[in-house]
Amino acid sequence: MVKEKIKLGYEIRSGKEIDINPSHLIVTGITQLSGKTTTLEALIKRSELKAVIFKTKIGEKSFIEGIEIAPFFRDRSDYEFVKSLIEAYAKEKLFLEKGTLMRLCKGSVSLLEIKKRVDEELASGKLRGLKEEINTRLQHYLENLIPQIQYANLSKTLDIREGINIMNLERFSEEAQSLIIQSVADEVLKTMKGVIIVIPEAWKFLPQKYNNPCKRVVESFIRQGATNQNFVWIDSQDMAGVDKIPLKQISTWILGYQSERNEVKHTLDQISLPKKMKPKEEDIMNLKKGHFFLSCYDGVYSVYVQPVWLSDKDAIKISKGKLDVDKIEAPNNLTPFSRSFQEKQDGKVEIRFDDSKIRKDLVELRNDFFNKIQELQNFEQKLVGEVYNIKAQAHGINEDELISKILQKIPISSHTSSASINKEEIIKEILLRIPKSIGNIVYEVAPLEKIKKDFLEEAKNKILEDVSKLGNKAKKALKYLESRGVGLTINEICMKAFLCPNGAGGYSKIANDAIHELESILVGEKQTNGKCFGRLRNRISFLLKDNEATEQEIEQVYNHILMEMLK
Hints:
The chain is α/β, with parallel strands linked by helices. The chain has 3 domains: 6-62 and 170-322, P-loop containing nucleotide triphosphate hydrolases (Rossmann fold, 3-Layer(aba) Sandwich), CATH 3.40.50.300; 79-150, no CATH class; 448-566, Arc Repressor Mutant, subunit A (Orthogonal Bundle), CATH 1.10.10. Helices cover 47% and strands 12% of the residues. Helix 6 packs parallel to helix 8 and helix 18 (490-497) crosses helix 19. The longest helix is centred in the middle third of the chain and has 37 residues, at 356-392.
């Protein structure tokens, strides 16, 4: 049962108790100086609702009291979700890609299936120009996003217990954190009652300038959640970069200390009082820890928020100015996890082992393992590339100059005749000491870059070899198809490529055989409507792009093959 009122604290000066209605709310203020976390923790405890807290920053010390639960994720592949995910990763809105992405998402069941569809379209060799560029960009986005989900060790079941449930996302990337928060909010909205979702770092997960998977579900949560006593509580240091659509639906604003002038103005704008009656800028900039301006349906109040561990007597003294808030310290005996025993009704005590700490350590160890492996692979690849570049450079040694400089350093005194110095022996010794690894030496171990170049050369040679084996008629048909760049019928090829004066006639079989020959090496295509196309450039691009060939290299190979056929 949801309480009709939740105690917030006591009004400044009067000491009057201030309550708020259970609703969607936002708490703002500078981190570590305003008391946002203490406020949220106290409200959650006094609301007696379940709550899910997301720890997103490494080393974050807030909300240490509660039950740690496994990160939850449910895979989705609908257009709106995938679009918001890609926009969150790219930090920009999709425009040209919308149509292609909508088609790829239709009927799919997972992100992996969408990735497979993109790969297949690019591998077909039929895409050109803008379509090819769009699919390449989508492939790049998905290649970077999917591994973050695969290696995250995410739970498929959301287990929310009584009290504060802490979901530790410190080790995840920002994109993975967005996916998890979105999945949790969506699951709560659809299947649960009486749950508070605390959205941290609102500027990050509800950004104003670009999309994020969280934005749409939080907007739905705010519009529909209150029916089932599900509420969104937003924790935000400021409001400058936060999307205004969800903020418009929030009725309870708890506004804390700010130091930056523009943010102070934003804070004052949210206080629902006539301009002359509003607090002054210095009032916001002089707020102490735990002191907030409450702007809600019932009015505007200056409040000291009572921490859950502080007595009513001391909280009233602080609100009246009789006790300095800076002299109050939180006790250090707060239970970091749920209690490990529970008293039965018959008076006996049942010992219960809480394995949440162990599960947390296992998740962190696994994430650390994958992170270290990735770091090692990146370092190895970079190191090999650097070594290859150094060795590939021909640092020639000018031996004559070197010998000349050394001979100049040999002291010739009156007691030492030039005859007593064996210059040939000295020169021989110098040459022996010149490093053998410098120069035109062949290295047996081929770094990654060299391997790629080798495969690139093999791909080029393969195309040249295949085209060189074509018959004269097939080469002629290919040259004509490539020069036209459009679909042609067999009759057109006979008349314009083979210069047959009376239509296809006996040349139709020759033309068909030539097209089949081109199709056998994937440089030509005859479609079901009878139209024939040259696919030489597509074939070259397909084989060379996998080996990181540049557009210039692809164009060079294409022109080279055309020149070979002209001979």
